[in-house]
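Case study 2.
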Amino acid sequence: MVGRIVAIGGGRGLSMVLGALVDCCDHLTAVVSVADDGGSSGRLRRDLGIVAPGDMRRCVVALTPPGIVRDALEHRFDTGVLDGHPAGNVMLASLLEVEDNVVAVMDAMVEMVGARGRVLPATTGKVDLIASAARGTVKGQVAVSESAAIESLRFSPEEPEVPPEVIAAINEADLVVVGPGSLYTSVLAALVPGVRAALDATSALVVYVANLAAEPSETAGYDLVDHITAVRRHGIEPDVVLAGSDASIPPEYARKVVSADLVAVGGDAHDPIKLASALDLLAAHIRA
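Prediction:
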């Protein structure tokens, strides 16, 4: 069992990784993008001036034991003024109205629901994504997700403040897992300059879990090399890339890419059990 693991990203990809790893380490920390500006998160951002709560809620749910509390966090209201809001988002919004320290809020929520791990925001305050794409410069997570041929991603503010707890977690980690998930709007969205600097400085094994397939618009037409190239273009140099067993691996990447059967039955998403097993094998040399 690995001692300390940090998982970085956002959306469904990160919550899946947390569910896969929660029983595989002594200390598990999620570093989550808070750049979402769509759906319930976008409405709460605009109405209350808070960081986007949705991806943080997903992560808390992934770390919470099954039962009524977990189900309630994911319950989505379908009438009245709360129509469309998951209860967990509303709970986080109320905590952020009382306490503006997002790290303290997330620690309190984890304790309240009995989650097994820590969930930290990638930035202390609101942040917007800005991409250079085929249609020009686009701003906002939703707009970026709907864009094609993205060349680069940056942030507003340009260098958002990163909680010191995030830096400490990465510095103390044995294994750091980056991805999978929507490449620009979840994975790279969490890799603000301060997080990238911490990855450069850590002695942990840094593993990039590549997506098993391209996504419409955002990474349309991407293969494995395109995903790796985009990650490296944004200042991330993983020690290992974990790819699906059917990925085409060029000779120049042979020493960096490890392939494994990661596909869930009936689709192109990652299977949590297969992913956990593959990451455990990769981390074995840490314990050797």
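The chain has a mean pLDDT of 95.
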